[in-house]
Write a structure and sequence with these properties.
Shape: globular
Number of strands: 0
Order of helices and strands: HH
Structural class: mainly alpha
Radius of gyration: 13 Å
Largest sheet: none
Amino acid sequence: MTHRENTDDPLARLRAADPAASAPTDLARLREAVDARLGGDRQAGAPPGAVV
């Protein structure tokens, strides 16, 4: 990553770690990373932004 890239971007870290990952897989991993960062309180299958 260059100094201008956001090193706190979970998707960028995932792509750097596994460049062959597909977009749907990246999205699932990104959701997991966001859920973990937010405390994992989003229910599985709930739409983004849903209050649970």
